[in-house]
Amino acid sequence: MQIDPAATAWLLVSTAMVLLMTPGLAIFYGGMVRSTGVLNMIMMSFIAIPVVTVTWILAGYSLAFGADAGGGLIGGLGHIGLSGIDLTAVRSNVPELLFVTFQLAFAILTAALVSGAIADRAKFSAWVVFVALWTLTVYSPVAHWVWGPGGWLASFGALDYAGGLVVEIVSGASALALALVLGPRIGFKSEAMRPHNLPFVLLGVGLLWFGWFGFNAGSAFAVDGKAAVIFLNTLIAGCLGMLGWLAVERFRDGHPTTFGAASGVVAGLVAITPSCGFVTPVGAVVVGLAAGVVCSYAIGWKFTAGYDDSLDVVGVHFVGGVVGTFLIGLLAAEMVSGGPAGLFYGGGITQLGKQMLGIVVVAAFAFTVSFVIAKVIDVTMGFRVTREDELSGIDFTQHAETAYAEGVHGQQHKRPGS
Question: What's the gap between Cα 19 and its chain centre?
Fold first, then answer.
């Protein structure tokens, strides 16, 4: 296979765009927490960049995209430390080292997404250990199932263009597991815990939206009509997600909010991620609108069920990922997908069944393994900060810094011994 210069140039740009999404997520999440936890929240995203990079180079890429080691469950060890890959290696018509980096950017973002569920109460050191173990035992196997050579879900026929299963459902199910292991924040249900900086939230979602075009359209590994459709679908779904969420707020609460607008955009983008390369622009309208409406209601589930998913990773990413992955079974159009069609396009219910199986299996696997990892970390080194540290502010207790000169009670924090 020859390297395609145009595809390579587009993937270089797309990779940079996807890498930008993690700092964008850090700002998005940072604005959503209280003022005493903003630095810690941002750091939880930023630390994922080096930790996942090292883990991915050492073993993660080989486990995800190496030759199948049997049964479609995990890749082999042929690329440990990126062995066997040089400047001349080609994958999907681009240099394989670029393919490695593009997929690495996905892994980084997925790990960072999980952190939103445990804002304001996790030990930073425990989070670092969790990210490294999770990349190898949760993300890499699922990536192999869906995108790797010989992956069993791909062979079965479950479709996921850019990460509904691999990114969104994996991160959402893992987030739920961590929220259950750590337990709710002090004051959950009794205190408002509102976002401390809505401009940060909107800036963050703007960076995410920009990066998402590389996330989805870059996954085409080509500069062609398919990439153009995916690009447009991504824009449409983000817009309709916002409109759907704001409509619910207007009907339910009496007023649309900036926070709702940002959340709706993310919900629409999450849902179009798995379906962007399979649905028409009309289908993208349905996907985005459905995600905006459903996710706007789903974020309230945590109060009923009693789990404290601080920044609604479950309600937006898990539920949005389920919506988008499920709707492939209804809305996939052969003219876009080049293959299977959904129920509404004459394909019958077969694809719908495959999508549902993928959702259930990936969610169950990600939740179970993440729960075990988090529980082991909690027992051995402790995953949650002390009550005193949580009440005094996790930024200061974990990093000896504060984002703002004045603390939450109007007193300036000082470093120990100063």
Answer: 13
Task: Summarize pLDDT for 185-197 with one digit per residue, the tens.
Answer: 999 999 888 999 9
40-53 pLDDT per residue, tens = 999 999 999 999 99
Dist CA 52 CA 45 (whole Å): 11
- Of 276, 245, 275, 285, nearest to 262 by C-alpha is 245
The token pair at 275 is 């379906």
| Rounded Cα–Cα distance for residues 2 and 269 (Å) | 33
Query: Rounded to the nearest 10 degrees, how much is the dihedral formed by the CA atoms of 397, 201, 164, 210?
Result: -120
pLDDT in tens, 21-47: 999 999 999 999 999 999 999 999 999
Average of pLDDT values for 309-326?
Answer: 97
DSSP-derived 3-state class of residue 193:
coil
Class of residue 416 by CB neighbours under 10 A (exposed 0-12, middle 13-18, buried 19+): exposed
Q: How far apart are CA 21 and CA 105, in angstroms?
A: 9
Taken in order 315, 320, 323, 170, the sign of the CA dihedral is negative
What confidence tier does 407 reach under pLDDT thresholds 50, 70, 90? very low
- Using the predicted structure, report yes or no on whether residue 169 has a pLDDT greater than 90: yes
Torsion of CA 318, 322, 325, 327, to 10 degrees: -140
Pair 165, 158: CB distance under 8 Å: yes
Residue 410 neighbours by CB under 8 Å, 6+ apart: none
According to the model, what pLDDT value does residue 406 have? 60
What is 5-402's CATH superfamily?
Answer: Ammonium transporter AmtB like domains (1.10.3430.10)
Torsion angle of C-alpha atoms 22, 26, 27, 30, degrees rounded to 10:
170
| CA proximity to 324, closest of 295, 288, 296 | 288
